[in-house]
Amino acid sequence: MIPTETIRAVRVLIADDQNLFRSGLIRLLHGDPRIEVVGEAVDGLEAVRQASELKPDVVLMDYKMPAVDGIEATRRILAEQPQIKVLMLTTFDADTYVLQALQAGASGYILKDSRPEAVVSSILAVRDGARVMADAVSDRVVDLLNGERSGGEDYNGLTNRELEVLTLLAQGSANKQIAVRLHISEKTARNHVSNLYAKLGIDDRSQAVLYAIRKRLIEP
Q: What topology is assigned to 152-214 in CATH?
């Protein structure tokens, strides 16, 4: 009798602050023998801690979470354990969110309205070294990464860096916090803020927030 090779299940950590969604996702994944859910986290700090302790193959990471968001949690996890794959699973499909996730080192970006089988196949794909992108964002993001679009068509000529600054600004970050988050000097952060204000024809943070909401860079 020829022995059958046993393939180890993908060890997955789920990080999401929505209890109902998280528990439903766990039940879904428990039904697939190729997946083993080894832990769950309710915020980014807990995700970083559990990733260090549990050493999962893949972290399913939400974007918006309390304490530390999914982007910063991704940076911290991959800085300590670059072998882990992070797959963003979120409701947001704005270009700037996807770019921030990829720049932080995420291996994929899929949406919460994905079919169950698509979530499983995405986990398996990133475990095997592939990059996975939701259909709703893939073409736009490939164009941005290849330099075929600068974002100017949709964002009044703002560069990708200015979009990052705008998003953080609209989320309430001060210039010093933006500088720390983006690993730039505070002076450079101020320059980016001045430049994006000029391009948008605005002169205060409240107008920046309204613009960011209108362009779906942040939630209202």
A: Arc Repressor Mutant, subunit A (1.10.10)
